[in-house]
Amino acid sequence: MRLLPRSLFARLVLVLLGGLVLAQLLSLAIHIQDRGELLLQASGVQSARRVADIVRVLETQEPAARRNILRVLSSPALLVSLDQRPISPSAREGLPGNRAEMFSMMIRRFLGDGWPIETIVADSASTLPIDPHRPGGAFRHSMHGPFNGAMHAPAHSGLSFVSQVRLHDGTLVTFDARQSSEAAGLPSRMLLSLAVLLVAVVVLSLVAVRWATRPLKALDDAADELGRNIHRPPMEESGPLEVARAARAFNTMQVRLTAYLRERASVLAAMSHDLKTPVTRLRLRAELLGDLQLRQKFTGDLEEMESMVAATLDFLRGTAGSEPVQPVDMTALLESLQADLAEVGSLIRIEGRVLQPYTGQPAALKRCVRNLVENAVKYGQAASVAVDDNDDRLQILVRDEGPGIPEAELERVFDPFYRLEGSRSRDSGGSCLGLTIARSIAESQGGRLTLLNRPAGGLEAGLTLPRHSRVRPAPASS
To answer: What angle is formed at CA 397 by the lines to CA 391 and CA 399, rounded to 5 degrees?
Structure first.
């Protein structure tokens, strides 16, 4: 199973987006950690300053007035109590000490030296239930055991900085400053900003990858069109340096191919002219022979030679490439071919019908089917044509009643000038290019041509033409 996509565009997008998402996740994790620490420090400085201010206020007040003052100064963010027991050493066990020491140092910074301060940091919720009616503070302490938790209720989750400062008259003041977990979390605006940034970078990545791979698509289209039209306009040599070089190399290749084909056409035209001249002289001299039987043999050989030369030159020249592509009435084409062969005594049966016109080159398609039918009549005594048509493809099956072809030779008979022994031999005539030309035409229409031996005897040539294909130049038939 392939895990990577096949297209270059998809692979580049996958790599870019994968790296981007990974980088965003790592950045988010680092940001969350750093932001939490900064918020705790900022909140700790503010809480430490307020603790120092409250201690100074309580120090100047009479013990009876302190409880009334605490009713005003105590708040959900910083709870103050005068009734908590001292923090025992067992309460510090298992709790982080660095943050507690830093918070104590902050309080001493604002309060000054000479004040006994004990601080613990509790991550868990308070074990001290709420008692709003207690006059000494907003919460009541545990009646059993040492102080071992924050004064906040369990519903308020977060990190508690619990500090105790002893006043000069021996009164123990307990402060519970809590950093809410909601404050340390990610705000919605930050998440929205990250989402907008991610979407923007994804869109830009897609645009950049598409822009980078577009020249490859243009080169692919140009190569495909070159196969159908060698005289297509050259590619535009613009864009990045690598793209311009590739376009220049492609245009150079097209110029060389055009020159080669032009030279080959000139050579073939000269060969055609040079071969026809001696053949014509031989035909004239054959007419002067007095022996009728000998004259007929000479004439037959010359006609066969002319046929082979014409078929070979047409095959090499490929003159069907300029034929326009248009809708073809395949039913009319088959009936016309049936009528043509009937005039020379060959009866062809047609089974089935074509549902809709086929878009292709009419003359080339007629040559292809004619070669298959004539091959079936010549080597298989009789021929029938079966049509199978649907929305995806048009299939034409040409069947004969001959001896068939050995399985090992089914592909070799498509080679130019390949001749089988036995019934399909030189005695039957022909240039041995009929199947070669037929397959070339089929492939030029975007289809395929196959041969197989029928179980009941005979050979079946299957011409399959797709309904949606790109037609490229095909060679002419004999």
So the answer is: 165
Q: What is the CATH T-level fold of the domain 234-315, as seen in this structure? A: Helix Hairpins (1.10.287)
What's the mean per-residue pLDDT of the chain?
Answer: 76
Lowest mean pLDDT among 44-58, 257-271, 370-384, 398-412: 257-271
Element (H, E) at 118: strand 117-122
Residues 177 and 53: beta-carbon distance below 8 Å: no
User: Under CATH, which architecture does the 321-466 domain have?
Assistant: 2-Layer Sandwich (3.30)
Handedness of CA 340, 342, 345, 349 (dihedral sign): positive
Where exactly are the structural domains of the chain? 9-184, 234-315, 321-466
**Entry field: residues in the chain:** 478
Q: Which two tokens stand for residue 350?
A: 């047609």
Rounded to whole angstroms, how far apart are CA atoms 430 and 444?
23
Average pLDDT over residues 232-237: 85
Break the chain down into helix, strand, coil percent, rounded to 5.
55, 15, 30
Tokens, residue 460: 């079946």
Beta strand spans in 378-477 (E): 383-389, 393-400, 448-453, 459-466
The single-letter code of the amino acid at 409 is E
pTM assigned to the model: 0.48
Residue the block writes with tokens 């009929």: 434
Bin 308: left if φ > 0, else alpha if -120 < ψ < 50, else beta.
alpha
How would DSSP label each residue in 184-236?
HS--HHHHHHHHHHHHHHHHHHHHHHHHHHHHHHHHHHHHHHHHH-TTPPPPP
CB atoms within 10 A of CB 356: 14
Structure-block tokens of residue 337: 């071919």
Is the Cβ–Cβ distance between 224 and 473 less than 8 Å? no
- On whether the CB atoms of residues 145 and 113 are closer than 8 A, the answer is no
Find out whether 447 and 463 touch, Cβ atoms under 8 Å.
yes
- Helix ranges, 95-187 (H): 98-111, 181-184
CA 325 to chain CA centroid, Å, is 32
